Amino acid sequence: MGATRPDPTYGRRVSTPPSIHTLGALRASGHAHRGVKAEIRENLLARLAAGEPSLPGIVGFDETVVPEVERALLAGHDMVLLGERGQGKTRLIRTLVGLLDEWTPVLTGSELNEHPYAPVSVWGHRTVAEHGDDTPVSWLHRDARYGEKLATPDTSVGDLIGDVDPIKVAEGRTLGDPETVHYGLVLRTNRGIFSVNELPDLAERIQVALLNVLEERDVQVRGYQLRLPLDLLLVASANPEDYTSRGRIITPLKDRFGAEVRTHYPLELSDEIELIRQEAALVWDVEGPHAAPVVPDHVLEVVARFTRAVRDAPQVDQRSGVSARFAIAAVETVAASAVRRAAVTGEALAVARVCDLPAVVPASRGKVEFEDADSGRETEVLEHLLRRAVADTFRARLAGQDLSALQSKFDEGLSVETGDLVPADELLRQVGTFPTLSTLLSRLEPASGPEGAGAVGLAAAAVEFALEGLHLLRRLAKDDVGHGRTVYGN
Fold first, then answer.
1. Where is the signal peptide (predicted)?
2. In angstroms, how far is CA 88 from the centroid of its own chain?
3. Final residue of a structural domain among 214, 229, 262
4. Are residues 299 and 184 in the same domain?
């Protein structure tokens, strides 16, 4: 959740792996072995020195969360991110992968991604001893060095750390042989980044299994005398309320995390809008003119203000929060309403308008948890907050705008019928021209937008927004005539 800055190399495959396939050739190349945390530290320092974003695509955390994460990484700390749902914790964790080297050498066939210079398993030591400089080497891309587990009550120590592999025992190996161990997810992410999402949901006895991973950097599997010096960055996420409701992070485990970072929802309206614009899927995988519906800036702002109003509403359970997914889904619903209108009426381009906003209420009702006292009033509360968001956006965008020319048309008896199936050209035909239309459009959409059909759609969106604003300021009447249609008049 800092504004998106294009960086095509971050976390992406941009080159082919080196043409080095043996341990001897790797040594001859001058390759140096670094631990994961040293690797991340070095790459992070290089990005900071170059003035590049350390966590691109993370919006609204530039002055708060990102500096804390950077300090934790530079200190070599494992960390836990605490925050309500939908604050971008998982997104932030996955972005850390971009701080790893693009390619790293591993012993070919190693289940633990062992570095050729520093094998950790019995198999790895034996392979290097047998083949020497001819030991086969492969290259692992950073995308494959990230592991993640959503903590659930049924997660076992075997899932995370490992357990006896009965198939290997059945093949004739004896119990106690380290090579009969089936490695868990944490071990298979050796030399990478491992994330445990919703950590408090892990049973306390399972959390105990992570104590050695975080401090001693080794593991224990049943009765095996097994020491595997792990090299990884462990990051966990949790909701603050989980400490006392669904579960808790046991004290010894909290103590072993080097850093605790609190996340938050966007503090500024501009960040909320930027997050919606970045994350909403508004380019559809369809053929034809409706593949990319247009959501005007003022409609995005209404949704952002609506989200923040819901988040702050006393009727809403503040402990559960209102996820960023609420706003993203709302904008996608508004765009879908515009596409539906365009498909039914034959509009050349789908442009979202105020009449598409009411569709957000029923679609988003399930994303908000209300206080018990307001049970049954969910729709009423959301509709009120949506109207308030439109009014606030109208005041912010059109304060001081002269709408007397538009108002005078209604004083002379004009009435305008609109709705989610009324096309843009029909709405504009009813309103007709007035002298300040271009000024109104430039105030709402400074970046003019597309020409032709797009201009018609944006003009209709601007006019309808002005009509709704005048209604909310009690300067126009508005009647619901059914079937999703309303009439503005005096």
1. none
2. 5
3. 262
4. no
Specify the 3-state DSSP secondary structure of 419.
strand
Q: Do the beta carbons of residue 210 and residue 160 sit within 8 Å? A: yes
d(CA 48, CA 67): 11
Specify the 3-state DSSP secondary structure of 140. strand
pTM of structure = 0.85
Instruction: Round to whole Å and give the CA distance between 122 and 110.
Output: 11
Cα dihedral 211, 216, 222, 226 in deg (nearest 10):
160
Residues 339 and 288 in one domain: yes
pLDDT in tens, 54-110: 999 899 999 999 999 999 999 999 999 999 888 999 999 999 999 999 999 999 999
Q: What is the CATH number of the domain that holds 117?
A: 3.40.50.300
CB contact at 8 A, 213 and 230: yes
> What pLDDT was estimated at residue 62?
92
Give how many domains the chain has, as a whole number: 2
* Domain-embedded: residue 13: no
